[in-house]
Write a structure and sequence with these properties.
Blueprint: E1 2-8, E2 13-20, E3 25-29, H1 36-44, E4 48-53, H2 65-72, E5 75-78, E6 89-90, E7 97-99, E8 102-108, E9 117-123, E10 126-133, E11 136-137, E12 140-141, H3 157-172, E13 180-183, E14 201-202, H4 203-209, H5 218-226, H6 235-245, H7 250-255, E15 278-280, H8 284-289, E16 295-296, H9 304-311, E17 318-322, H10 325-336, E18 344-349, H11 362-367, E19 373-376, H12 380-385, E20 393-394, H13 400-403, E21 413-416, H14 421-434, E22 440-442
Parallel strand pairs: 3-4, 4-5, 5-6, 10-13, 15-16, 15-17, 17-18, 19-20, 19-21, 21-22
Antiparallel strand pairs: 1-2, 2-3, 7-8, 8-9, 9-10, 11-12, 13-14
Helix pairs in contact: 3-5
Length: 451
């Protein structure tokens, strides 16, 4: 038997293959959008992918389950409550998949969603591992607020939080302490609020250290679970529905993206529709020195997908601009990870642009912060732990497109986050929306010298 884990660092997502080496058969669990790593794993091990299990319809990424089934003939397994649109077999309690000496069976564990399951792996009759999806993480459990008004089953966060309490205690706590825990996400995911960086754990370790498995009342559990959850990115409901339908072929979709000619001057930028946002992925310094009109500086770093899907709405077309072709290709792939590849009107290399942003005199700002309107675009939980500027206005980046008009414009505006990436996006968005009526500055990495 062999268990293979893959990590998508941008989305803090883990996917898995369970290989029966004696039968040369593979079952995948929660695969990412690009099917190629799983197909290569099967080829390397001279094995056949015979099944793909989805622990629930994911909100934060698009799965390749349908494409994998179409390319390999694998059976798709989901809980019956998902009411999936693609051909599948219901994988409810009492059902099982057996390959060689391996048995995989589901535990119905509503809480993160009303249709969530965890998958127990038995080898030679003994529980060896549990694939917990978004139910149990290392150090935390899944958030319960993503299915209010989303999907075929729409349940209040309070009810799901209560269900999570019982799922954890009735279904997962009884598992042996040496059972390895393989979650669908790690630190940095927005599917929970306190995930640890580890890629796996054991039930024994989680029983000792994970707050959500401790001996507390249901009321106290629900209160703690609902408190300070991160914002919900705009693309989450879109991905739930797309995963219930099954996404189209990854390679066909990214191959259909239009790559335009390099923009070297103002005239060459005339081909762009001025009403469509340009998502400029270059670093903040390059953006401030020259960018195109109607641009947002979503830096192509570790959380590109999250901020793209938080600022750009599902179905909203956008341009993608970078300073090199290699990065463009990688970021089209990353846009596809959340189902946004079809929204890219054109991707192009940007060499010269004429719009600029003023650079902040940090020493002047330090000495006279009262002369500026300070906007904090961090998440609620970050601000509740520590407010960096006492009189700052707090609007999380994911809410800024809807709430920017709340910001007073009688003083220059300074935008900050925790490290500079979110403030680059927020300040560029504000500069465009305010159309020069008020100066907007990005505090950037200098925020680390405060507080």
């Amino acid at each position: 038997m062999k268990i293979q884990q893959w990590e998508d660092k941008g989305l803090a997502h883990f996917s898995y293959a369970v290989l029966s080496e004696c039968e040369k058969k593979i079952v995948l669990i929660d695969p990412a959008r690009n099917p190629q790593p799983y197909l290569e794993f099967a080829k390397e091990n001279e094995s056949q992918i015979v099944g793909v299990i989805e622990t629930h319809p994911h909100a934060d990424f698009v799965s390749s389950h349908l494409e994998l089934s179409e390319r390999t003939g694998a059976t798709l397994y989901v809980h019956s409550l998902v009411n999936a649109f693609y051909p599948h077999e219901a994988f409810d309690e009492g059902h099982a998949i057996e390959i060689g000496k391996i048995k995989l069976y589901p535990l119905y564990t509503p809480g993160h969603s009303p249709d969530s399951i965890c998958i127990v792996l038995e080898h030679e009759g003994k529980s060896k591992a549990v694939f917990t999806g978004d139910t149990l993480f290392i150090g935390d459990c899944g958030r319960p607020d993503l299915r209010e008004g989303v999907g075929n089953l729409q349940v209040t966060r309070e009810k799901l939080a209560s269900q999570m309490y019982h799922s954890l205690r009735d279904k997962l706590l009884p598992l042996p302490d040496d059972t390895i825990v393989y979650p669908a996400h790690g630190a940095g995911s927005l599917c929970g609020k306190a995930l640890k960086a580890a890629q796996s754990s054991t039930m024994g370790e989680e029983k000792k250290t994970n707050w959500c498995l401790q001996d507390i009342s249901e009321d106290e559990f629900v209160k703690q679970l609902l408190a300070d959850q991160p914002f919900v990115p705009a693309y989450f409901p879109f991905d739930v529905d797309l995963n219930r339908k099954g996404a189209p072929s990854f390679q066909e979709r990214i191959s259909a993206v239009t790559y335009g000619d390099t923009i070297k001057n103002t005239n060459e930028a005339d081909r762009l529709d001025k009403n469509i946002w340009v998502v400029d992925v270059r670093n903040a310094q390059a953006f401030q020195q020259g960018h195109l009109p109607h641009s947002i500086n979503i830096v192509g770093g570790g959380k590109f997908e999250t901020w793209l899907g938080s600022i750009i709405q599902p179905g909203e077309t956008f341009y993608l601009a970078s300073d090199n072709k290699e990065q463009l290709g990688k970021l089209v792939d990353r846009a596809a990870a959340i189902g946004y590849e079809g929204q890219v009107k054109e991707a192009f290399v940007l060499e010269n642009a004429f719009e600029t942003m003023p650079a902040l005199d940090v020493d002047e700002f330090k000495g006279h912060t009262a002369n500026y309107t300070v906007v904090d675009v961090r998440n609620n939980g970050e601000v509740s732990q520590k407010k960096i500027f006492a009189n700052s206005i707090h609007i999380p980046l994911g809410e800024l497109r809807k709430r920017w008009a709340e910001i007073p414009t009688n003083k220059p505006i300074v935008v900050h986050c925790a490290g500079g990436t979110r403030s680059a996006a927020a300040s560029s968005l504000l500069q465009e929306e305010l159309n020069g009526s008020t100066k907007v500055y990005d505090l950037g990495e200098a925020v680390k010298t405060f507080g």
